[in-house]
Structures are given as C-alpha cells and as structure tokens.
Structure prediction request, 364 residues.
Amino acid sequence: MPPRRLLLTPGPTPVPPEVLRAQAEPLFHHRTAEYQKLFEEVSRGLQRIFKTRSPVYTFTASGTGAMEASLVNFHSAGDEILVVDAGKFGERFWRIAKAHALKAQILKVPYGKAVSPAEIEEAVSKNPNLKSVCLQLCETSTGVVFDLKEIGRRLRGKNCLLIVDAISGLAADRFEMDAWGIDLAISGSQKGLMLPPGLAFLAVGERARQQMTGAMLPRFYFDLALYEKALKDWDTPFTPAISLVVGLKEALRRIEKEGLEKILKRSETLAEYTRGEVRKMGLELFAERPSNGVTAMKVPAEIDGEKILYEIREKEGITLAGGQGEMKGEIIRIAHMGFIQKEDIDCGLRALETALQKKGTQQR
Ligand SMILES: *Cc1c(COP(=O)(O)O)cnc(C)c1O
Prediction:
C-alpha cells in the first residue's frame, strides 16, 4: 500500500479512480476520426459546464495559459484594461498584461474582501477607453467569490469585454457565461473538473470573437485563429494532451451523471459544513463572500501556519493549502470542490485541530 495521500488543496484536487484508469489506456493517434469524435464530445460537454453556446477552446497548458490567451487574442499594445486585484490571481492577470505592454488600471481590493460591482461600473463609466475588465470568479488565494451576475448586469451595454478567470470557481460556484453577459471565460483541468493539471480552457463569446482580427498583440501557440480553424473539424492545431482529453471525457461523464445543479448544491452544503466546523474550532473565517469551492481561515496569531501544514502533510499525508504572498503563514485553506468528499474534509479538519492543539500546549 502506498502511503495515504489526501489532497485538500484548491488545485490540484483528487482525481476519481475511473478517470485515472481511463487515462492509463494505450494511446491512439490524434489525427483520426476516433479523436475527432472524442474531442467533439468533450468540447460540447464543456459548453454545458460553462453554460454557453459559444465555442470552448482547449489548450495543453496550465490555467495561466488560457489567461494569457484571453489577453493576447483580444488586445493591442497600449490598450487600457481594468484588472481587479483582490489576491494572487488578480495580480497574475496584471502581470500578464504588463508583460504584453497593456496599460492595466488596477482596482485593488483588500485581501479577503469581494470587489464591489458598483466600483467596477464606476471605473468603466469613468474611462471609456477601457477595452476589458479582468477578474476572477473565485479568487482562490483568499477564498472569495465575486458577484459576477451583478457585475455582468452592470456592464451590460458597455463597450468593454468582461473576462472571467473561473479556473477554481467552475463546477463549484454558480457560473452562467451567456446569461450573465460574460465575453471570455477561463478554466483549467485540476480544480472542480477533477483532472490532473495540464489542460486550460477558454470559452469565447461572439462579441470577443469579433475583436480578434483587430487585436495586434503577438501570439503563436495561443493564437485562437488556429484553434478556431481546427475546431471546425473537432481538431487542435498542435498535438493535444490525448490522455488528459480521454480523462476529461470520463470526468464530464461523471459530472453529467450527477448533474451540474446537484454538484453545485453539494459544494454549497459542503462549504457551509466546513465553515461551521472551522468556527467550532474557534478559528475565524477569512473570506467576506466565501466561495463554495474553498474555505480560508485565519491562523491564530501565535502559530506559524506553514509549520502546521508541513506537519500535517508529513505525519498524516494530508495536504492543505497555506496563504500565498503576503498571506503566507497567516491563513490556511481547505478545498471542497470536485471529487473531495465530506469524509475527506473531516480528516483534514481533525488533523488540523490536533496539530493546532498540540502547538497550543507546547507554547503554553
Ligand atoms: C489555479 C488558478 C489559476 C491557474 O493556475 P495554474 O497554475 O496556471 O493552473 C488561475 N487562477 C485561479 C483563480 C486559480 O485558482
């Protein structure tokens, strides 16, 4: 028996055994009718998860690849964009923008807080040059979910793309790309979709698509024109991660079998349960508007959060997430998305409780 390994991190997340098994099947070639059939099936399945009628493109990349694709295909150097920075992943958006010589206006939100839809509307109304607004569905680093429905409503009719990084939020927090007026939606394989890392997804709405030809930023690997042409034949321009796509089919089958609605409901219930247990342990929750995919809690002042996580991982084989950047050592995060079950959460929380108690006694 290999040692127990329980992943309770908001990416990567545990992969169901039938998905792992599907990925272990012998390879077949991708320039075949067999692959086209598979790719059509998964691409259509992804549209149902994003809740969109627009095409969803699959890249062999981690999620950040699709974030980059969402900027380079729709902008030119010097374009002004608004980036909501409420944590590590908002920050990543403006770093990508900076690397491509975009002028990013940053809407800074304190860690643990949600961006105010009114503030976004105001910023967009004040600056008619803004080409797009970039933000997360769930800012995974703080465990906050943004009110994308309301943000979409307020930006309706404005001449500005709404770009949403739903990498951790998808299939955990409610998300409706078309109904909410979202132009570009991004996700990745290793979070709610229950796959290993390696696939990134970008759903491209019609309004965004029309801006592609005028967008002059250099691009090659992520040039959507190539993917668009290939997708007409349910194909990809470059060698796809065939095994991961086979796994994706299995993961989507699992999602459809349970039903997306039920999954969202289950995530909500599990998130509420987790928050309740965290409060019972005497810990304070970190997110003002908590996501259903991940719960962040504050580490008591006298305790080093990173040490606690190290101990739990080494002794129990359970991986929880710490804080990133300035939040390092200050918060602990536990995921309850995808294949993570209530029993897993219980294991994680009990291990955390024990470790905290021990530290408390040692320090007294
Ligand atoms: C995980 C995650 C990413 C992407 O990270 P990769 O390491 O590139 O897969 C981006 N944004 C959010 C909100 C995430 O949770």
